[in-house]
Design a protein that fits this description.
The protein is of the alpha/beta class. The chain contains eight helices and twelve strands. It has two domains: 3-119, Response regulator (Rossmann fold), CATH 3.40.50.2300; 129-226, Winged helix-like DNA-binding domain superfamily/Winged helix DNA-binding domain (Arc Repressor Mutant, subunit A).
């Protein structure tokens, strides 16, 4: 499960960012103080992205970023009320990957997060693509390519993660608990019905006859099994 560190001293904004990132399926760790943020310098490998406010108490976001860069290349997205070209250049020069001036549109923030995560993504799959029948899943672009009808279908981040998990454990029965632990974490469990809905959607996309699946099997009382054998 991808994890994001958000460092922001404005409590209402911090809560809003956290809530929306969690709704997107990310695990979120928050911090509201520059000096406290420095305590994460030795733990940056656990994060896929850092969202960092420039103006923080005691230690500025710029100084936090400088420290982080001595420990890790984790992507850093700056947030700042200072949106001039000079300020953006200063942030990028010290190692930030992107810079978003306040006030910002939430949709734009989430899009930038997805882009930065995708370029630095830590995946569990064994390759960049997966062929399922006449369909090919391109993991980096989140696309399903239909080579017969020459069409493309865009998957969500969670669907891609679930396919990567199935691909890594092909021909094995994967329990619901394993899926929940791998993709949602112990504190963000959805219902079992949520996973059932993902499987139903996969069958609609990949199976010629969704009622008689060849690839995505439900194992009653246990979980699911993915197989490529026809």
């Amino acid at each position: 499960m991808q994890e994001i560190l958000v460092v922001e001293d404005e409590s209402s904004l911090l809560e809003m960012i956290q809530l929306n990132l969690e709704l997107e399926g990310f695990k979120v760790t928050t911090c509201d103080h520059g000096r406290k943020a420095l305590e994460y310098a030795e733990q940056l490998d656990r994060f896929d992205l850092v969202i960092l406010d420039v103006m923080l108490p005691e230690v500025s976001g710029l100084d936090v970023c400088r420290t982080f860069r001595r420990h890790s290349d984790v992507p850093v997205l700056f947030l700042s009320a200072k949106g001039t070209t000079v300020d953006r250049i200063a942030g990028l020069k010290i190692g930030a990957n992107d810079y978003l001036p306040k006030p910002f549109d939430l949709e734009e923030l989430l899009l930038r997060v997805q882009i930065l995560i995708r370029t630095n993504e830590k995946t569990i799959h064994t390759g960049d693509s997966l062929k399922i029948g006449d369909m090919e899943v391109d993991f980096p672009t989140y696309e399903v390519i239909d080579h017969i009808n020459h069409t493309r279908h865009l998957l969500t981040k969670r669907e891609i993660e679930l396919l990567q998990l199935f691909n890594a454990r092909k021909d094995q029965v994967v329990s619901r608990d394993d899926i929940l632990s791998e993709l949602w974490g112990n504190d963000q469990y959805p219902t079992g019905r949520t996973i059932d809905n993902y499987i139903l959607n996969f069958r609609k996309i990949f199976e010629k006859d969704p009622r008689n699946p060849v690839y995505f099997h439900s194992i009653r009382g246990v979980g699911y099994k993915f197989t490529l054998a026809e």
